[in-house]
Structures are given as C-alpha cells and as structure tokens.
Hints:
This protein has 143 residues and is α+β, with helices and mostly antiparallel strands.
Amino acid sequence: MRYFIHIITDQERLVDPDGGEFADLDYACAEASQSARDLMAEELRRGRPVPFGWKVQLADADGNILLTLLFARLVFGEAIARQLPTTVRSTSPEAHLALIERAKVTFARAKSTNAEIRDGLTELRSQLRKLAQYSGALGNGSA
C-alpha cells in the first residue's frame, strides 16, 4: 500500500509528493519514525538544536492522515513527551538555547564528578599500595 510521509515544522508543512510502498501501516510507521530521527540527526550535525516540536504525519493515498508523531515522542517516549514543559516542546530559539545551556551545565557537572571519582580511585590505589607494603613488612619481620 502507498503511504505518504509529511513533515510539519514550526513554519511549514512539507508534503511528500511521491509516497512509498509499504507492506502495511506498521512498516510505514517505522519508516516515518526513522525519517524523523534522520531529520533530527541532520539538525544536530548542522549545529542546530533538536526540533522537538516538529511532527511527522503518515497519510494514505487519499490524503487522510493516519498517524501523527511528535519528534519529542520519538526521543523521550509518549509519557515523558507529554510531561515536557511547553518551552521544551517549543521550537523557539530561546527554548533551544535554554535547553542547550542546561545540557552544558549537566555535562560540566558530570565531568567534575568523573574527575572526583578518578581522584578518589587514585588515592585509594595509593593507600592500597601502602597497605600492601606494610603487610609485606609485617610478614617478613614476624618470620
């Protein structure tokens, strides 16, 4: 059966003029989801934020919309996508910049935590070496 995959951005509706042949609606849905993921990846490759507010629509040959998927749902899942604040679902540049800043802060925090763990492990190894030396010295002295 022929299905058409349309993309809804924050400014326009991109209509699939040719469509594609798919065994059934599930295969067409899988292709529509992958097309949306590819678009999100392309946005990231171009240094732009993920357009969580964009949608992909699946239509039949008569133009009936059979399915609409929000990009955010493909990334976060249905339950989480519904809970996202409007500012995150929005595709406004301000919302994307705020999300990017939060991601930078989270990354910096993770990097700092990683450094603390690494330093702690280095100190632990040092203490274990000293303990092994003391243990060896006590073992040699008591024999």
